[in-house]
Hints:
- The structure holds two protein chains of two kinds.
- Chain A is mainly beta.
- Helix content of chain A is 14%, strand content 42%.
- In chain A, a hairpin with a 3-residue loop joins strand 10 and strand 11.
- The N and C termini of chain A lie far apart (83 Å).
- Chain B is mainly β.
- Chain B has a domain of 42 residues.
- Helices cover 0% and strands 48% of the residues of chain B.
- Chain B is built from no helices and four strands.
- Chain B has a three-stranded antiparallel β-sheet, with no helix packed on it.
- In chain B, a hairpin with a 2-residue loop joins strand 2 and strand 3.
- The chains are: A mainly beta, B mainly beta.
- At the A-B interface, helix 2, strand 3, strand 4, strand 18 and strand 19 of A face strand 1, strand 2, strand 3 and strand 4 of B.
- Strand 20 of chain A pairs antiparallel with strand 1 of chain B, so a sheet runs across the interface.
Amino acid sequence: MDNDLLNLIANLLSMKRLSIVLTILLFLYYKGFSQNVKTEVYSLPWTNSKNEKKNEARKKLIPCLSNDNLVFKGGLVLYSRSNKTNKYDFGGLSALHCFDNGRTIMTVSDYSLEEKLAKQTQFKSKWFQFTLEYDDEQTLVGAKGMVKGQVHDLNSLIIRGEIESMAYLGDSIVYVGFDNLNYLLSYDLKKSGFGCAVDKLSVDDKQCFPARKNAGIEALTNVGDSLFAIYEVKGNDNDYYEAWLIDSGGKNTERLRYNGFVNVSDTYMNNSSILKEVKGATTLQNGDIVILEKLFKRLIRQIVFVSYSSILRK
Amino acid sequence: MKENYIEPITLLDTGFSKALDNFEGIDSYTVDGKEYLLLISDDNGDWNGEKQQTLLLNFKLLK
């Protein structure tokens, strides 16, 4: 063998070793290195964004965000500088949970797009936790100190997006709901975190679970030791939204009906081009549930907060 | 069972506005006995922020 051939073989072996090392690093990255990555979140007042027309519209809207029931206490635009290099690295935030009297929030992304990194598919299901800052009047003034990671399934594989809802039972057990899937996954944040789901909780059998594409359980909150879930859109022939009260042990699931948008005018309700979707829910200290409903047509949106735990029909 | 049905309370109806983005998440917290709501929006991959941004709004509940 001449030297050129020996060099070629050596180079090939070296490349093979390099590819093995890269594969191992990628495997470790997807299995765990991608968890608890320290980064930064940035914020601007929500009336100080790049879009001047939108800023003016937001300033005009502020008086409409307070009434006898609640008071608007500040808003932010959140962003991450890493979006310049990885456009789907931050955003798509579809659910949140507060800790520490609102000073810390955990939020998840519903991004489902995929990109290729070194010929490996990089999925987008991510969690982000960061700190919020308030002034003395509890007005929201800033965000900082973000930690992020990727959300995995029962087999420790990264979930392919479409996480739409999240609810905590106790301090460390968190459930997430999805578009198009009739089950929840749970995580123990004191053990494996979002690195591996610990349980799969069926919401309902497929006969009852609506089958509209790109819709699912978008509202999820705790009711005592159980979970209350609402499907995003009405069934085709129903005047209600499918809902469930789910025993966290998975033994009992009670099927309910959520009577949404009850105070919205018939003009909007009868207009099929205006979409009416249930987007979130939270349980207050007294057990009442506040539900986020949204009407929208193209990019013009209306949000409606609805309260009471008793808006259920059996 | 109709008897289980009670009329809900609408806490806020903003009306249609281009100022509002795609709100998808809500949670509540308590400070000094007062309850607050946080609301977060999904930018739908509009990373230039021209049409949709990641917004976080804070409300104090009065009742």
